[in-house]
# Entry
Amino acid sequence: MTIESVSEAELRYTVTLHYPGLPAEARLKAEARYIRALERGLGGHGAAADALLLMQSLQDSDGAVAEEDIATLKRWQAAVRAAQTAGFQGLGESEDAYFDFRT
# Structure
């Protein structure tokens, strides 16, 4: 099961925690914490989805970042760090654990 976030505009994204051996209830709570922290850090659902789309387009580009995208890139990096901290809170360590965030 994956946590899905939907805005009024119906732009959807999913967050899935891959954490071997973690019970489903704990995984769902961690995914919800991740989404809350990410959206808080980026200014809401729409901003999080827009930032993800920008990150995906940057991965597909030649590596050049437009001047107007630099601020979004920095906010994205900070928000993802905060979301990971919130999501992994209380779970213990696992080298194989990661959050997958997709549109």
Summary: The longest strand covers residues 12-18. The chain has a mean pLDDT of 87.
